[in-house]
Amino acid sequence: MRRFRRTPALRGLVRETRLHSEQLVAGLFVRAGKGVREPIASLPGVSRLSPDEAVAEAQRLREAGVGGVILFGIPDRKDETGTEAWNEEAALQDAVRRLKRAVPQLALMTDVCLDEYTSHGHCGVVKDGDVDNDATLPLLARVAVSHARAGADVVAPSDMMDGRVAAIRRELDREGFSGVAVLAYAAKAASAYYGPFREAADSAPKFGDRRGYQMDGANRREALREITLDVDEGADAVMVKPALAYLDVIREARDRFDLPIAAYNVSGEYAMVKAAAANGWIDERRIVLETLTSIVRAGADFVLTYHAADAAAWIRAGGLDR
Fold first, then answer.
1. Cβ atoms of residues 270 and 306 within 8 Å
2. What is the number of other CB atoms lying within 10 angstroms of the CB of residue 100?
3. DSSP class of 158
4. Is 198 exposed, middle or buried (0-12, 13-18, 19+ CB in 10 A)?
5. For residue 310, what are the domain limits?
6. pLDDT for 206
7. Which of 14, 94, 113, 206 is the most buried (most CB within 10 A)?
8. Conformational region of residue 144, where left means phi above 0, alpha means psi within -120 to 50, and beta covers everything else
9. Is 30 within a domain?
């Protein structure tokens, strides 16, 4: 078995999983303003960006070979139902329009959820202390349409409300956006790995938690049922989130479904690598490339990751064998 391991050239001939920079999607946090670049303490190297700075960052990512970006909006105003989420003049919609003009080569995705925009921090309409699934669906569809109108190629509902893929697909088609794809956060666990994201997006719930609508991470069979429902409702691609602690779910999904599968290498996974690297405990480059390779090996077609820019540069510089 060692004979094809002796040299980089021999290893390259028989490598089964190949990581490409085009498979990487970078997350961008967008807020109102001009020339704004606010570092996020728990996500070293990641900042909240004004729309103009988001364009500059996207151009840098494209030059590095990254395949796409996904935008998360940070509003200045919040209310009970998250009305700023579908404001056509909000920072996210502004950034989408600018990015579509400036970097049309990038796949442009938007996160569709209400948690960043609601005063209570939950992903839907709250009634009597609980999230009302059905009352939330038309609001999510309205958000998706506003993103499509701004120019998004892909809308990605991350709320985990039942039926939201069908509601979004129906409204997109009705409004003339049949070409906009839906990437469903289909198997999204109620995970402890989201902490840094909640700081970045100021989206932590003000009461309770999200276990009533996000998945129990212990349930692999249920994850496949969730994915099946989203596929049946018209999802064009599905996502498993988080990625690294759920590689078995990614593998199961790849074996069962033919449509594109995404995985989200989430904020907690990123932050742990950054913290260990800062202390000199790990080789960051090798850890990141090994992690991303494992996610693709498990079956993901593309990976949302905050490592995208660095990983793309490392891939170009020789990848795992440098």
1. yes
2. 15
3. -
4. middle
5. 19-321
6. 79
7. 113
8. alpha
9. yes
Question: What are the tens digits of pLDDT across the range 76-121?
Answer: 999 999 999 999 999 999 999 999 999 999 999 999 999 999 999 8
Is 2 inside a domain boundary? no
**What's the DSSP call for residue 7?**
S
* Domain count for the chain: 1
Which residues are bridge partners to 239 per DSSP? Answer: 185, 262
Is residue 100 annotated as a catalytic residue, yes or no?
no
Note the pTM of the prediction, 2 decimals. 0.95
Residue with tokens 């998706």: 144
Choose the catalytic residue: 34, 206, 241, 274. Answer: 241
Active site residue 127: no
The answer to whether position 200 is within a domain reads yes
DSSP structure class, residue 79: B
Check if the beta carbon of residue 23 is closer than 8 Å to that of residue 297. Answer: no
Catalytic pick among 78, 100, 127, 188: 188
Within a domain: 281 = yes
- Name the one residue in this structure whose structure tokens are 């498979």: 23
Angle formed at CA 262 by CA 256 and CA 264, multiple of 5 degrees: 125
